[in-house]
Amino acid sequence: MTILLIILHVTVSIAMIAIVLLQSGKGAEMGASFGAGGSQSVFGAGGGSTFMSKLTTAAAIIFMLTSLTLAYRSSQPTSSSIMTSVPASNAAPQIPAAVPQQPMQAKPSAPAPAGAPQPAAPQAPQAPAAPKK
């Protein structure tokens, strides 16, 4: 439902932008910018409503209703959660048993055979490269 409202909201907002831009403003003549349009009153004597004016009003009403509906729906707590499908487990997680470690020998009791690989000695980290000038 919310996705449908969002699609309607975006469509109406784009349509409203197009409708408003297609209309010519009142007093859009060149003389209006120099004060020649003073005979027209702001709220009266505007003439009859045109089709574009009625279309703008309808688009504005739909835009406001979808805005209020989306705001109301987003403020409501959601009833679904991703954790509802996870079964509840009462058992504590199992900790693996400690493996007894053998004490480290200071020196090997016998030398390693000649063909056996030698354990790698830990290496110190390398210094960062100097910046090139």
Unreliable stretches (pLDDT < 50, length at least 5) are none
| Helical content band | 25-40%
Beta-strand residue percentage: under 5%
User: In one word, what is the shape?
Assistant: elongated
Main sheet, how many strands, which sense, barrel?
Answer: none
The radius of gyration over CA amounts to: 39 Å
Span between N and C termini? Answer: 62 Å
Order of helices and strands: HH
How many β-strands, per DSSP? 0
Class inferred from helices and paired strands: mainly alpha
- Helix count equals 2
Q: Output mean pLDDT.
A: 75
Your description of this structure?
The relative contact order is 0.10. This protein is 35% helix and 0% strand. It is built from two helices and no strands. Helix 1 (2-22) packs antiparallel against helix 2 (51-75). The longest helix is centred in the middle third of the chain and has 25 residues, at 51-75. It is elongated. The protein has a domain at 1-24 and 50-76.
